[in-house]
Model the fold of this input.
Amino acid sequence: TENEKILKKIIVVLDQIDSIYNFAVQTKNDMLVKNLDSSVKVIKKAFREIGFEEIPTEGEIFDPNVHECIEAVEDDGKNKNEIVDTVKKGYKYKDKILRVAAVIAVK
Done:
């Protein structure tokens, strides 16, 4: 549908924002990180209000309906199947999964 095309384009934009954010963190550009944090909060709130949300990952238990496990690791301090890292964020619109989240989970 036309809505899905628009939402998938939004995901591309969000991926780019994540790339900029990760670059800012890696280069220790604290001012950029702070500004991006503020902007991302506003963006996420606006999207939540229309039913577009990021799929929860870290600390959650792996769910094959919304997550794709790309690596399983050993970690005695975590629960079995607990997600410990996010490789690529996943998104949903209302109840429809637009893209599953690529994650690393405990074996």
The mean pLDDT is 95. Helices lie at 2-26, 30-49. Residues 58 and 93 are 20 Å apart (CA to CA). The chain has two helices and six strands.
